[in-house]
């Protein structure tokens, strides 16, 4: 069997376990040195391919690869960058394939979400059109859990675990502080269009009286009066109320609930829904209010990784290498659920082109009829994804995340000028 | 030796380890059943004493006491309530001593911060004035680390560890996302008047180029131009910048930097400094900006407790019981540092009255000359306090915090009407 070189890259928002996928890719490629020559990693995703900024992963010792599996962030750098359509910018694709050719790349593994699957589909089509032999494999990753074609997305389980633990712990804190006027706590979690992380906070509760008492998801238009009535009833019953809100909740007219804060290009910067909700409660009901916005902490919490999520992330990395070696093109290894309890799963392969740019939202049967919480069906789906703990090593009080030295390999091509 | 009953209560903002103190109080009292009859706990701090809402801690089994030691929040409930001066409201003290007398209380253990030490001092003086035999013992607790008379405050080490880990993990995340315009991340931590938790995020870094690049503490007036210049220089050097900010930073004219959000009584609600700083950077320098506000999560993170902090919290609880048995009045067990590295410590006793209402701020020699970071002296002080990990048991993906049943003992007095 002729050996080929592979290229791995990370894309989009990083997760607590994307490096577990990277470590599995490296380990699998090393085990298959009968088929894989060099495994390169591109720095900063597809931007590193365009810039011919490549790392030979052989620089990492075995112990470093093991450590990589427990590090948050994207060790090789990530980016948010969409490829142009090939017909509009053929020069961009000329460059990508020039880099592939210069380094003997026969397989490209792109580790990302919906947008990355779009890149996989475009590159796959372009390779076929050019007659370049490339196995283009999407490797799923997103905290948002919004990828179609897979039962869940690696990265989500750990974000979900973080959010559930945050609600559990903050909820105990809030409950223990006596107040005559009532106390309200709002936890804002990620989710612009899909409420998966918010839904997962339901796993903090053992009974309906435990936090979170209300979960606001983007799938349901925000009804201010119904929401405030539910808060009021909860405070009257328990003396406090804990609310989870997805950053992207909208009113029935489509406007975002959060304060809008436009950046220089007019992009909306999210991050204010929790504050808006907390202030609304305070203004209308008069309760003491606190809000927490974990922001990046929820997707970077290497100290609180779900063992199931970690196993998923590793498995898709290994499967992607096998797929590339087998010459499977435009596919994405996906998680298939076999049973909820005990949780059993295996892998299947999905068509990356069919997944690209789709967005899986929380389905109606996972959302309680009043739109303010989740159903038992949601709990059955979510629970296994946060189970088990994988702790990093600690040193001097903090996780002992390695500082990896990742020198670029010498460039073979002229600089890229877009 | 005649046996006496003790009364334990929790006060002020709770911490990740205040229940470790409670568990140690219970365990120590059980071991000293030669001297202690019943150990009561008041529900919701001093409010529970006034309301004669008492729990006999004998209801907790040994296994529950062990579990209690690893639960965040205040298991018996806490409150923010200041006793009136005895001369202004003698009826309040009449009630307190009536409750003490009705339940045979010879020792009162109040677990709190500066305000609680004030309560200890007032109760102690009132007991002496009345000739009521009471050993009034303050038990230190605050995430703010602002108690005088002790090298550090139980509760702080775990909040500091949480904040350092948050900055480490989010910093890795931010660093891994490529951006042409530069990225800025702001972590807002607790600290209205003292920057201890903010300072502790310095422990995330191994070099000056690692997050946090800037630490803003309330001890130093916020200088917008100097700050923005430091952010700009960091982004130019590294491509991104991570900033820690205490919630209570103020400008030179004394105004809070955060957006002011007055509640109905005109009290300022803190919680917006991070957002203000992030938006300022964005408006003036144009960088992409994110901010995180862990809020209660940083003081409730039972899943990320410092082993040293946990040991401190347990030790002060045990010492408080011994002090009460010995009839020591108006004292507070305090942490005494014997050496930084290896870290060695023991306990001493401080005068609770001398501590009451003081506030220990970060000293000048812990703050870098430019006011934008900490010194090595600060790191030497802070490092031992976050060391070691104490994990709670997990069940079904989240910490297995017990739901304790804590029935009130029958009241012996008429209801209290303030």
UniProtKB/TrEMBL annotation, chains A, B:
Q: Where along the chain is substrate bound?
A: 142-144, 190-192, 247, 296-299
Q: Pfam family example for this protein?
A: PFK
Q: What class of enzyme is it?
A: transferase
Q: Which residues bind Mg(2+)?
A: 114
> Which cofactors does this protein require?
Mg(2+)
Catalysed reaction, written as an equation: beta-D-fructose 6-phosphate + diphosphate = beta-D-fructose 1,6-bisphosphate + phosphate + H(+)
- What residues does diphosphate bind to? 13
Instruction: Give the keywords, sorted.
Output: Cytoplasm, Glycolysis, Kinase, Magnesium, Metal-binding, Transferase
Regulation of catalytic or functional activity = Non-allosteric.
Instruction: Give the matching SUPFAM superfamilies.
Output: Phosphofructokinase (SSF53784)
**Subcellular location, in the record's words?**
Cytoplasm
Q: What's the EC number here?
A: 2.7.1.90
Do you know which InterPro entries this protein is assigned to? ATP_PFK, PFKA, Phosphofructokinase_dom, PKF_sf, PPi-PFK
Catalytic-site annotation from UniProt: 144 (proton acceptor)
Q: Its family?
A: Belongs to the phosphofructokinase type A (PFKA) family. PPi-dependent PFK group II subfamily. Clade 'B2' sub-subfamily.
List the NCBIfam families hit by this protein, alphabetically: PRK14072.1
**Under which name does UniProt file this protein?**
Pyrophosphate--fructose 6-phosphate 1-phosphotransferase
> Per the UniProt entry, what species is this protein from, by scientific name?
Aromatoleum toluvorans
């Amino acid at each position: 069997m002729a050996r080929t070189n592979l290229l791995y890259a990370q894309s989009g928002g990083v997760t607590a376990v994307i490096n577990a996928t990277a470590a599995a890719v490296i380990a699998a490629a090393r085990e298959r040195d009968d088929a894989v020559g060099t495994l390169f990693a591109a720095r900063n995703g597809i931007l590193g391919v365009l810039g011919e900024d490549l790392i030979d992963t052989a620089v990492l010792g075995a112990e470093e690869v093991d450590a990589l599996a427990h590090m948050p962030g994207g060790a090789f750098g990530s980016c948010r960058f969409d490829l142009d359509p090939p017909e509009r910018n053929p020069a961009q694709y000329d460059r990508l394939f020039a880099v592939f050719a210069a380094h003997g790349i026969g397989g490209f593994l792109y580790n990302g979400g919906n947008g990355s699957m779009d890149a996989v589909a475009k590159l796959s089509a372009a390779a076929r059109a050019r007659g370049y032999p490339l196995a283009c494999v999407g490797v799923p990753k997103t905290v948002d859990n919004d990828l179609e074609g897979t039962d869940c997305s690696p990265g989500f389980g750990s974000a979900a675990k973080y959010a559930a633990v945050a609600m559990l712990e903050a909820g105990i804190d809030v409950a223990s502080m006596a107040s005559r006027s009532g106390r309200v706590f709002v936890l804002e979690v990620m989710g612009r269009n899909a409420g998966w992380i918010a839904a997962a906070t339901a796993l903090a509760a053992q009974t309906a009286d435990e936090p979170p008492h209300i979960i606001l998801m983007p799938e349901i238009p925000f009804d201010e009066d119904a929401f405030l009535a539910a808060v009021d009833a909860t405070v009257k019953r328990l003396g406090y109320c804990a609310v989870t809100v997805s950053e992207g909740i909208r009113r029935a007219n489509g406007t975002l609930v959060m304060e809008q804060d436009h950046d220089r290009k007019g992009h909306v910067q999210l991050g204010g829904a929790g504050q808006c909700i907390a202030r609304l409660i305070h203004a209308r009901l008069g309760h003491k209010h606190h809000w927490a916005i974990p922001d990046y902490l929820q997707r970077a919490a290497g100290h609180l990784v779900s063992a199931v999520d970690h196993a998923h992330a590793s498995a898709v990395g290994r499967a992607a290498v096998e797929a590339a070696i087998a010459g499977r093109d435009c596919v994405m290894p996906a998680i298939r659920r076999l049973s909820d309890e005990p949780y059993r799963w295996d892998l299947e392969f999905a068509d990356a082109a069919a997944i690209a740019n789709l967005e899986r939202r929380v389905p109606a049967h996972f959302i309680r009829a009043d739109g303010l919480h989740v159903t038992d069906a949601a709990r059955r789906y979510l629970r296994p994804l946060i189970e088990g703990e994988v702790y990093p090593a600690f040193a001097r009080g903090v996780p002992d995340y390695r500082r990896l030295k990742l020198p670029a390999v010498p460039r073979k091509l002229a600089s890229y000028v877009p």
